[in-house]
Amino acid sequence: MTLDEKAEILPGDRFDAIIVGAGFTGLYMLHVLRQKGFTARLVDGASNVGGTWYWNRYPGARCDIESMQYSYQFSEELQQEWEWKERYASQPEILSYIEHVTERFELRRDIQFDTRIEAATFDEAANEWAVETDRGVTLRARYFIMGVGCLSAPIKPTFDGEGTFAGETYQTSLWPKEPVDFTGKRVGIIGVGSSAIQSAPLIAEDAAHVYLYQRTPNFVVPAQNRPLSAAEVADIKSDYKGFRAKAYAGLTAFLFKRHDDSVFDLAPDERRARFDEFWNIGGLPFLGAFNDILFNDDANQACIDYWRSRIDEIIDDPKVAALLTPDEEFGCKRLCAGTGYYETFNRDNVTLVDVRNKGIERLTPGGLRAGGVDYDLDTIIYATGFDAMTGSVTRIKITGKDGQTIQEKWDEGPKTYLGLMISGFPNMFNMVSAGSPSVLATMVTSAEQHGDWVGECLEYMRDNGKAVIDATLEAEAEWSAAVKRAGDASLRTNCDSWYVGSNVEGKPRAFAPYIGGWPPYVARCNAETQSDYANCVLTPG
Ligand code: NAP
Q1: Ordered DSSP codes for 505-539
Q2: Could you give the residue ranges of the DSSP H alpha helices within 282-356?
Q3: DSSP symbol at 335
Q4: 498 lines ligand 1 (CB under 6 A)
Q5: Are 126 and 75 contacting, i.e. CB atoms less than 8 angstroms apart?
Q6: Which one-letter DSSP state was computed for residue 222?
Q7: How many CB atoms neighbour CB 66 within 10 A?
Q8: Domain ranges in the chain?
Q9: Which runs of E-coded beta strand occur in 464-508?
Q10: Which parts of the chain have pLDDT scores under 50?
Q11: Which of 70, 93, 194 to mutate to test the pocket of ligand 1 (most atoms within 8 A of CB)?
Q12: Which of 67, 137, 509, 539 would bridge 468 by S-S if both were Cys, CB 3.0 to 4.6 A apart?
């Protein structure tokens, strides 16, 4: 089958499972179900596989988890044969990897592209899901599996004067496939999260001028990306399984150097040397320098002091350095990994615009107005983030038992059992999302663990003549309380971020992922399987 060919769905088509989302999660789920002899159809609104990596193709898009770990491990042949080029893979490289996996495991014939799921309703009489597409076709399946991603429901704020801007507008999370030429353009970038941090330095190389409109600064550490050496790849591949097992045993399911001592165990010069060492390692592993950066206010402040000393060395203008300094704890928001981000503010053609107080006042035909100043722009880029964790789920009209919708169910924040199940929504599985480690662990590893768990569950149902599985309300309440407890114990709930949903107006504040650690989470999932789903109600078919 070629890229142009698509699996077609017909009215009345029935499958064992419908999977939504052709990213890492949905593709692996499809593979597992086919291996186990289930019929499945995977549906995606895009024209090809990739999920997040299909849409986020802005300049500089790159993963912040190392490529040798941000990849599937279910097939030893696959992980041996694929050659990652860089420590952190770029979006095009990840996309070609996902396409390779799709072809290698012949997944394409069961994927329906260019089709969005608009609604899904559990039919209690038939014990199956009726799933409505935007093509006016309704599919039916016993199981409904959401692999829709945590950062895949983009947000684009509206401003006064909406629609008046005469120039070009782009959104990092919905970037066009054709290259965008910024040569000679005056470009305004709204937002300074990871997407802007990655793209701004590259856009500034071509543009006449780049204005970065910053409401809240972020902590950025250097990614320290580099080509992978043949020797380090060979070393990992000589025992890839063992390498993966070590990662699996860690709290975040990915392996990085970490010290188990306190900031205050070392004398000031040794402490600085340790921070220097981890600055040179770069990226998220920077947090491994000491064990208390995320847990002790004074240790966190010591980390901020170090970080500030480094950016003061990089940035020429102290006023700009001050503006780029967050006033929250280090690592409260997801730490950003950048390449040349702070350096870019030393360029004559880059201006940081503080919109903390008044915000962006309005769009104008010639650009935008902020802080009473009119900025003349040819291009505006929205790097304004996502309705994270739950938005991709609640944007679909999902109706469970007794007519309850997912919006009603989650009106005070997400409630799940192990992140995987939602009581009252039988035979539905919500993969790598709220209530599981998801964004706090390696997404690909999470996708495989969830895929295996759901595959085993469906096999159990088939082998034991069960038609319906639903988590009990008690189990869901107990797990949701555990998710909240773990979140409250971490400083990550102390600031506004997409983790807690504060970037979406009206969204109930709740720390959505499970931060209690990967090994305890996996143990809990395994216990559920081994107990024959003791915390669920199983109904015979
Ligand atoms: P983000 O971190 O949520 O950043 C959005 C930015 O837009 C923030 O600076 C936000 O300001 C700003 N913003 C939103 N509405 C605004 C408005 N009305 N006026 C002015 N500013 C506005 O989104 P993101 O950069 O897309 O990153 C989201 C997450 O995706 C990251 O944390 C990361 O987990 C993931 N990601 C990862 C990578 C990677 O692997 N390296 C790359 C990109 C994204 P406020 O903070 O004030 O709300």
Answers
A1: TTPPP---S--S-HHHHHHHHHHHHHTTSTTEEEE
A2: 297-314, 318-323, 341-344
A3: P
A4: yes
A5: no
A6: E
A7: 24
A8: 3-153+388-540, 162-382
A9: 466-471
A10: 1-5
A11: 194
A12: 539
Q: How far is CA 270 from CA 31, 50, 89, 273, 419, in A?
A: 50, 44, 33, 5, 42
CB of 337 closer than 6 angstroms to any ligand 1 atom: yes
Nearest to 296 by CA among 273, 262, 328, 265: 262
Within a 13 Å sphere around the CA of 181, how many CA atoms are in the beta-carbon half? 2
Nearest to 503 by CA among 391, 349, 370: 391
Beta-sheet strands, E only, within 332-396:
336-338, 350-354, 360-364, 367-370, 373-376, 379-382
Distance between CA atoms of residues 257 and 289, nearest Å: 8
C-alpha 89/C-alpha 443 separation (Å) is 14
Give whole-number Cα distances, 79 to 68, 277, 468, in Å.
Answer: 9, 30, 36
**pLDDT confidence of residue 190:** 98
Distance CA 268, CA 20 (A): 52
> How far is the C-alpha of 338 from the C-alpha of 91, rounded, in Å?
15
Residue 36 contacts residue 459 (beta carbons within 8 Å): yes
Tokens for 374, please give them.
């009119």
pTM, 2 dp? 0.96
Residue with tokens 């650690």: 517
Q: Determine whether the shortest distance from the Cβ of 190 to ligand 1 is under 6 A.
A: yes
492 lines ligand 1 (CB under 6 A): no
Question: What percent of the chain is helix, strand and coil (3-state, nearest 5)?
Answer: 35, 20, 45
Q: What is the pLDDT of residue 1?
A: 38
Residue 130: phi and psi, rounded to 5, are: -100, 120
Pairing of strands 360-364, 367-370: antiparallel
Q: Is 463 helix (H, G, I), strand (E, B) or coil?
A: helix
pLDDT of residue 394: 97
- How many CA atoms within 13 Å lie on the side-chain side of 182? 25
Tokens of 272: 């600085």
Distance of CA 127 to the CA centre of its chain: 32
Six-digit token string for 34: 């086919």
User: Which fold does the domain 3-153+388-540 belong to in CATH?
Assistant: FAD/NAD(P)-binding domain (3.50.50)
Q: What is the mean pLDDT of the chain?
A: 96
The three-class DSSP label of residue 111 is strand
- CB of 282 closer than 6 A to ligand 1? no
Strand partners, 329: none
